[in-house]
């Protein structure tokens, strides 16, 4: 691990337009469980797919119940060592951007400006009407949810369903975010895949695209990933520990 971190430090020192691609693993040290964590909210609750949410009122009530339960559990989470290290690399002009699968808002909280951040799976900090697109703040939804004894409110303008601005299974990927991620990836010299099992399509396509385009592919994850075989450097260790070691190298 020590030798691998020294290699990583060398690569980061020479990086000019890197892309960091992050998954749930970068936020576990902040207290937010990843998808596979035993006992985590995501393993206890089967995800509600987009069609069920849209067509079924009980599913909407359940989705919002979970959202507010998560807020109670992780609402106060702060950026971790990985988030801070990436914000620093961006500030130094080594990274061109951060592409994330996370919906927790912790890259923004670490000071990364929106123009350098691509959220592939959206954001859970506000909601929109699925029919007319009107934006609603979570406090507004919560007030109505609680006052009605746990019923998800519909849009007052058009009666459409209101959903957090996240992308669910079965929901189309956000076109603009996919385009921006593709542009960053096509131009990068180093692609850092951090804390993702790299199984969720189409997000896992970006590391492959980077490699084909001639970038160096670095994977940091405590478990093996689907793409370890094609990477130039693989570090199986804790993300926070790795960036701490690199900072000292
Ligand atoms: P994943 O759960 O499939 O993979 C996370 C990976 O991170 C795992 O392979 C795990 O071994 C590794 N990991 C966990 N903690 C680590 C640490 N401290 N150091 C090193 N490695 C660590 O996550 P994914 O690929 O990001 O996909 C899950 C999907 O669910 C995402 O698309 C995301 O939208 C959603 N999700 C988001 C959050 C969040 O916003 N924080 C959390 C859970 C799930
Ligand atoms: Zn509406």
From TrEMBL:
Keywords: Metal-binding, NAD, Transferase, Zinc. Zn(2+) binds at residues 129, 132, 155, 158. Its EC number is 2.3.1.286. InterPro entries: DHS-like_NAD/FAD-binding_dom, NAD-dep_sirtuin_deacylases, Sirtuin, Ssirtuin_cat_dom. The active site is at 121 (proton acceptor). It is an enzyme of class 2 (transferase). GO terms for molecular function: histone deacetylase activity, NAD-dependent; metal ion binding; NAD+ binding. Signal peptide: none annotated. Residues 1-249 form the Deacetylase sirtuin-type domain. Gene3D superfamilies: 2.20.28.200, TPP-binding domain (3.40.50.1220). This is protein acetyllysine N-acetyltransferase. It comes from Ancylobacter novellus (strain ATCC 8093 / DSM 506 / JCM 20403 / CCM 1077 / IAM 12100 / NBRC 12443 / NCIMB 10456).
